[in-house]
């Protein structure tokens, strides 16, 4: 009996966009690598120092992978708002609930799909995309300065770059997990228009706070929760100094310290919030039929 | 006899309206029970409580379990078919088989595939590509392949044509039902399942109007068809329902011996449909 793997497969059957769209984008990136206009000019000064080389290397490889990960910020909220809403809309909840699967298993499988299976799956896909696309480019531009600069295979630098992206991805997922759990709760609860119901409480809350107290604490709190640059340890000051020193602004990835987020108590408080929201979602789903 | 369902003072309100009010009944193993009532009588509410889909007041035990708090383990031994709309439209036939096989330990996949081979349903079809009748066949194929002890059917043949309806109940009785299993069914088309039922529960405005076995029905109720004059005389024996058909009067009696009545005209055991109409009109009057 493999209930959880089957529940996850069921999600991927129903919400095909979760894997079809990333696959299409990956395909496009690989195809694009076959027909590039070789307009990228590499100045040998750009890769003169190991830092500059590393920055450019990381920039190139993250350009192959990060767009696919950014796509998740559209796919996953849409999925989360739909995942417990659709089954009530088409009444299929009666079919699913007539099978020996608990509400907790159902809810957790959906959260797992949104916060682990799909993002980590897409991350693995980006690794293949990157290897394929940069491999194609390396062959096509064999012998050019481009290849000498950073298209040659550098396992250590590659692992370093992808490692930072992976840690950043995990941090982003954990940081946004309360928002994911909130969207899922709305999906389980909203009678119609889950999108509207998801947006309403924060908007109304901010409006009431502004009118009643003239303050903007809620807005600032939400802004803090939504802004990811700080939590990834992206050092604005260092970036500013680098820019002032006339350095390339390309070392963004190099200036990220995503692992520092694990020392941030707010990340863990957010996960406590996730547990509470998930518990509530399970309660709501247990209560629900097609009515 | 093993008790499958025990309901005592079962109650449920929707926004102040009593959908179920102090309903008590028992269902024993090996019976086919018809839960019959007009629209909005509380049939579906009662089924949902039994299936653990809705919280309830009072006591309800289904195979020794509280359905609301133990739905997932209960569903290993209970199957449910609502009307045809509930199979997800995006699901493919082979995915449905894969899914049920993974989550339902009592599911016999080859049996389900055997049923499907007798139909025109293709393994790669999505539910939305199937006709209403085929969706019901698919659902039935899944359910009949589960070795469940209780099968709950809520208007299972709604919107199907006569051929599919007949086939549905034939399959149910021939391939599924045996002395170990119990079927609880609600339907508007009483005539269609009349011959299958071993027990009937009439429900009206959230209350039980009648709960009896079909065997007892014959000893409790008599239907008299007589001329107008004879009917006038028979009226002293207090029929609880009366109607006129082609100039003859049809009267229904409860607790009267056939011998008492046969001198007035033709007597027989009323059909469940006739009894249902009489009970509902009588209660409403």
Number of strands of chain A: 0
Largest interface: A-B, 31 and 35 residues
Q: Helical proportion of chain A?
A: over 70%
Number of domains of chain B: 2
Sheet with the most strands, sense and barrel status of chain B: 6 strands, mixed
Proportion of strand residues of chain A: under 5%
Keywords for this entry:
heterodimer, A: 291 residues, globular, B: 285 residues, alpha/beta, Rossmann fold, 33% helix
Task: Please give a quick description of this structure.
The complex is a heterodimer of chains A (291) and B (285). Chain A has 291 residues and is an all-alpha fold.
What would you say this structure looks like, in words?
Chain A has one domain. By secondary structure, chain A is mainly alpha-helical. Chain A has helices at about 5-15, 15-35, 50-85, 85-90, 95, 105-140, 145-150, 155-190, 195-215, 215-225, 235-245, 265-285. In chain A, helix 3 (about 50-85) packs parallel to helix 8. Chain B is α/β, with parallel strands linked by helices and about 280 residues long. Chain B has 2 domains: about 30-55 and about 65-205, P-loop containing nucleotide triphosphate hydrolases (Rossmann fold, 3-Layer(aba) Sandwich); about 215-285. Chain B has helices at about 45-50, 70-75, 95-105, 110-115, 130-145, 160-175, 190-195, 215-220, 230-235, 260, 270-285, and strands at about 5-15, 15-30, 30-35, 55-60, 80, 150-155, 180-185, 200-205, 205-215, 220-225, 240-245, 250-255, 265-270. In chain B, strand 6, helix 6 and strand 7 form a beta-alpha-beta unit. In chain B, helix 4 runs antiparallel to helix 5 and helix 5 runs parallel beside helix 6 (about 160-175). The longest helix of chain B has 15 residues, at about 160-175. Chain B is globular. Classes of the chains: A mainly alpha (about 290), B alpha/beta (about 280). At the A-B interface, helix 1 and helix 5 of A face helix 2, strand 5 and helix 3 of B.
């Amino acid at each position: 009996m493999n209930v959880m793997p089957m529940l996850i497969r069921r999600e991927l059957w129903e919400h095909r966009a979760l894997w079809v769209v990333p696959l299409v984008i990956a395909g496009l990136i690989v195809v694009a690598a076959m027909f590039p206009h070789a307009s990228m000019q590499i100045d040998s000064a750009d890769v003169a120092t190991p830092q500059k080389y590393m920055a450019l290397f990381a920039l190139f490889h993250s350009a192959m992978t990060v767009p696919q990960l950014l796509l998740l910020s559209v796919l996953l909220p849409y999925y989360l708002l739909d995942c417990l809403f659709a089954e009530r809309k088409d009444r299929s909840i009666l079919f699913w609930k007539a099978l020996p699967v608990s509400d907790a298993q159902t809810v957790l499988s959906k959260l797992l799909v949104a916060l682990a299976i799909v993002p980590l799956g897409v991350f693995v896909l980006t690794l293949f995309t990157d290897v394929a696309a940069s491999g194609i480019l390396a062959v096509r531009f064999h012998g050019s300065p481009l290849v000498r600069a950073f298209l040659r295979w550098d396992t250590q630098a590659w692992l370093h770059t992808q490692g930072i992206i992976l840690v950043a991805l995990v941090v982003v997922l954990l940081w946004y997990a309360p928002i994911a759990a909130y969207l899922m709760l709305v999906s389980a609860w909203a009678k119609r228009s889950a999108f509207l119901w998801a947006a309403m409480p924060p908007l109304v809350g901010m409006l009431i706070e502004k009118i009643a107290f003239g303050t903007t604490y809620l807005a600032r709190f939400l802004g803090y929760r939504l802004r990811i640059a700080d939590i990834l340890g992206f050092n604005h000051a260092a970036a500013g100094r680098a820019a002032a020193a006339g350095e390339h602004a390309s070392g963004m990835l190099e200036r990220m310290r995503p692992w520092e987020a694990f020392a941030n108590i707010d990340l863990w408080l957010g996960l406590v919030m996730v547990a509470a929201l998930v518990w509530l979602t399970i309660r709501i789903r247990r209560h629900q039929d097609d009515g | 006899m093993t008790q499958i369902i025990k309901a005592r003072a079962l109650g449920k309100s929707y926004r102040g309206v009593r959908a179920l009010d102090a309903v008590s009944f028992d269902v024993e193993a090996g019976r086919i029970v018809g839960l019959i009532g007009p629209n909005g009588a509380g049939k579906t509410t009662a089924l949902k409580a039994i299936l653990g889909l809705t919280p309830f007041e009072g006591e309800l035990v289904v195979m020794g379990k509280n359905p609301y708090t133990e739905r997932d383990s209960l569903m290993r031994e209970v199957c449910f078919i609502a009307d045809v709309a509930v199979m997800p439209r995006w699901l493919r036939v082979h995915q449905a088989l894969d899914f049920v096989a993974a989550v339902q330990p009592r599911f016999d996949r080859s049996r389900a595939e055997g049923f499907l081979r007798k139909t025109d349903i293709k393994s790669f079809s999505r539910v939305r590509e199937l006709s209403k009748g085929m969706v019901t066949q698919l659902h039935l194929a899944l359910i009949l392949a589960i070795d469940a002890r209780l099968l709950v059917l809520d208007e299972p043949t709604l919107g199907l044509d006569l051929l599919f309806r007949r086939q549905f109940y034939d399959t149910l009785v021939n391939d599924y039902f045996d002395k170990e299993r119990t079927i609880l069914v609600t339907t508007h088309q009483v005539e269609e399942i009349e011959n299958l039922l071993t027990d009937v529960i009439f429900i009206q405005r959230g209350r039980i109007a009648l709960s009896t076995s079909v065997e007892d029905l014959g000893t409790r109720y008599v239907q008299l068809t007589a001329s107008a004059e004879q009917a006038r005389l028979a009226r002293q024996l207090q029929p609880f329902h009366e109607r006129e058909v082609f100039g003859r009067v049809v009267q229904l009696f409860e607790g009267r011996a056939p011998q008492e009545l046969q001198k007035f005209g033709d007597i027989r055991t009323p059909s469940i449909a006739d009894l249902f109409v009489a009970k509902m009109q009588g209660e409403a009057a």
